[in-house]
Amino acid sequence: MLPQEIIRKKRDRQSLTSDEINEFIRGVTDGSIVDAQTAALTMAIFLNGMTKEETAALTLAMRDSGHVLSWPELDGPVVDKHSSGGVGDKISLMLAPLIAACGGFVPMISGRGLGHTGGTLDKFDSIPGYRTTPSDDIFRRTVKEVGCAIIGQTGSLAPADKKIYAIRDVCGTVESIDLITASILSKKLAAGLNCLIMDLKCGNGAFMDSLERAVELASSIVRVANAAGTKTKAVITDMNQVLGRSVGNALEVAEAVAYLKGENTDTRLHEITMELCSELLLISGLEASPAKARAKLQNALDRGLALEKFAAMVTALGGPADFCDQPWRYLPQAAVVRPVFAETPGYVSAMDTRGIGLSIIEMKGGRVTPDQKLDYATGYSQFCQIGDYVDAQTPLAVIHAQTEEQFTQAAAELRRLIRVSDKQPLLSRCIIQKIA
Q: Which of 81, 162, 245, 309 is catalytic?
């Protein structure tokens, strides 16, 4: 089966068979298909799309390109969550231990920052000693004994996706719904999940800025995952403002620990976290009703059970045993920590969330090149939310910078990116839509 004939067929808007897709993915994995051919096929898919059957076949072929995990030793459902990425999105750090405290097992394969969005692995890299690439034995033992482990993609899981994504990233085909579906699900299905919840961000800080595109992607993921035997539901959530009160790697870890301790809980962050956790408990069969799921989750927070799971996970993966007791003893801290105030008092009415994410990159908290060393200390805390009143005493945010020049630049950016008006705005819902 010649690769150029498979490319030609998709170029001419014909449907590919499962055998053709499997053959092409085998060639990508073993190197017999060159990067130029992979680029050509992904561009043909980007331009002409795929049928539901093709997308499902591509997902499964990429899943099966490497090792597919199974968890026969576990006595509960194996579940996970995936986010399409946002600014200040640290929900994975709370969700995994919350679900573990409620009887689920969460082998979470996470990623690094992409574009203007932060990455879960980058946040954990700010914890000294924490291993985001542990051995398979340590990963499996942590999931079994603690109930959750948040690590990075290993070379043996969906290796075809790693190759294809690298090519898509430099060939202008990242935004294809079909290719995004296959990329996300190939890794998640390879983790051996029973259930998956998808947190699909929508707004000016998300990759999917329109509701129509967000629904299209969510529907595709839910359809393909369920067809593959993994119970899946999607929740479309608002990303027209920073999620939570902090942005930046170490600062977001600190906010997550504070959340698990019941301290300084942001309303929107709490609502989205509880919604995603509740849906996972329901689709996994760990709870029978939304009310019981919420009560179980709140109990795990109130009794410190989720905090214990987070602490145990950090320790099992190489971090300090007393990290949760005194996180700022271990987390890196910036040299310049000062508030920035609005030029005029008023209500926060809008913000350019994507621009805020990009400003973190300017402070070296995100990457310009793949091999860049990050500054985990920089970012923002006490970040304002839409509807907040700001004045000479209440700041837009507290900036954590390494130099005065960096602080000045970040302050100017925030004043430009955050709109303040004299009228209090109508607040939008943080949970926009659910798709099952």
A: 81
